[in-house]
Structure formats: structure tokens, C-alpha cells
Amino acid sequence: MNNQYDQKQLEAAWSTGKAFVDRGRVAAYIPELAKQDPGQLGVSVCLPDGTFLNTGDTDVCFTLQSISKLFSLIVALCQNGPDEVFSRVGKEPTGDPFNSIIKLETIKPHKPLNPMINAGAIAVAGMIQGKGVEERLDSILDLLRKMTGNPDIRVNEEVYGSEKKTADRNRALAWFLKDSGVLTADVDETLDLYFRHCAIEVTAQEVARMGMVLAADGFDRCTGEQLFPQAIARICKTFMVTCGMYNASGEFAIDVGIPAKSGVAGGILATVPHRMGIGVFGPALDDKGNSVAGVKLLEQLSREWKLGIF
Ligand SMILES: NC(=O)CC[C@H](N)C(=O)O
Description:
The chain is of the alpha+beta class. The protein has 2 domains: about 5-65 and about 200-305, DD-peptidase/beta-lactamase superfamily (Beta-lactamase), CATH 3.40.710.10; about 65-200, DD-peptidase/beta-lactamase superfamily (Beta-lactamase, 3-Layer(aba) Sandwich). Helices cover about 45% and strands about 10% of the residues. The protein contains 12 helices and 9 strands. It has a 5-stranded antiparallel β-sheet. Strand 1 (about 40-45) and strand 2 form a beta hairpin. Helix 6 packs across helix 8. The longest helix is centred in the first third of the chain and has 21 residues, at about 70-90. Bound molecules: glutamine. It comes from Brevibacillus invocatus. Keywords: Acetylation, Hydrolase.
């Protein structure tokens, strides 16, 4: 079984990554994330037949953070269609850090450049429909529960509370968006939804399965269900290539060549079209906010298994 992808090669890539964990630091601007163990590293691969290859810390829970921006985008696109969504958020990479405010004012019209930066994801959260924050969050949780096959996927309340207390930069972004007319929903509710979806908790193995659904264009081979349209999967995968690794996306596209999205808790969701989903967890981050060991691990895995899409 799976002899095309050797467990030993996965372990070798994990060891290569592991040697880099002390080159990074856990995110500290969200105090709860600073409690994570920087030495952890896990990688899980989900294959089209639903089998997994796992190495390291693949059942440790961590929060999605920016990886969740993919799923709020999917929900917003399903509910509103691309014309409405892209009237409020752009399709271009920024070259700036994920929480940057600078281009919001200098670029006209003042809409955020893409949905993978904080400003863009806050604009997307403002487009999610539902009665209150709970109902809006449920539409994201429902999607993730189906994608992971885990009905218990939930928000980590400590991380959510910790970000909420310290998120002045995100508040500034949201109020700027409100002023420029991009955000028409209630600012506090929109931020609350954004903080909560960032704090949704998963394991690397669950992330691998989510990556496999994207690799299969929204089709869940485990249940035979099309969870979202192929056209939306295509939009997500393209954003992953151009903006998924923040302002290191170009370098990652050259060195690894796989559509991927990272988060500041140390997760990376990678998706190799039609072949596999990969979930990585390594909370020590480089200066751009990507898992330092995770990137090295993926670089080696991509080379060994010829996963690059270019
Ligand atoms: N890059 C990230 O993962 C950022 C997400 C985090 N919740 C924030 O808004 O700062």
C-alpha cells in the first residue's frame, strides 16, 4: 500500500525540518500562542484513498490562524458569489507582512489587495451571512467538520480570548475598512467572527485531510460529497500560490512549488492537486511568520516525491 510514497522518506524530511526548529520563535503577539512548545514538529499526508502517512506531532491540537482565511473565503464565495466578494477584496499579492496597513490607504480604491492578508480576511468575514456571530461561525465550522470528518471541531476559547484582548492592529484595519466603505457589516461582530475562526483548533492530520479535499477540487472522497464547487477550489489554490505564505510566497513557489497556506500558530496546509493533502505543524516561526521547520520539511518532501506543480 502507498509504496509510491515511502514512510521513510517522510521521516527523513521530518528530520531535516526538525534540525531547524531552534532557528525560529513561537508567535508572541497573541500571548496564548507564546505558550506553544517551539520544538514540536508533525507532518501528515492524506492520500486520495483516505489513507494517511504520519510522522511526529500529528495529533497535537493547534489553532488554524491564517489557514482559516481559506475557509471563510470559501463560505463567503458560496454565499455571495465571486463578483460580490471581489468587489470588496482584490486578487493581488502584496509583498507586505500579513498585518500591514500601508497599502490600504495608498492603493485606490481602498480595498484590501487579497483575502489572505488580515485586512482582506476581515473584509471577507464581513460578507459572511447569518443572524449573529454564532450562526456565521457555524457555517465555517460546518464546512471544517465535513472536511476533517470530525464533528467536534471547535474554537479554542483561550486563544480566541487572548487574541481579542491584544488585537489593536486588526481593530485598526477593520475601522479603516469601515471608513472606506469596504466593510458595511458591524465592526465588532466582524472582528469577533474573524478572531473566532482564527482560533479554530485542529491537528496536522485533520489539516492533511482538508488539503486532500482541496486537492480533489472540493470533492470529499471519503463521503462522496462535493463540499464546494470546483471553481471555488481553483480560486483558493491560486491564492495559496500567490499569497498563501505571506510575503514569502514567491520564494516558497520556487523552492517548494506546492499551493500552501500558513498560520502563525505554526500550521501549514499544502495541497498537491489530485495527489495529496499535507498538514504540517511546527510552531517555531521565521521572520515572515511561517513555520521554519515546516518550510524546510516541505522543500525536501517536494523534491523527493516530485510534488512541485510548475
Ligand atoms: N498570520 C496569521 O496567522 C495571522 C492570524 C492572526 N489571528 C492575526 O490576525 O494576527
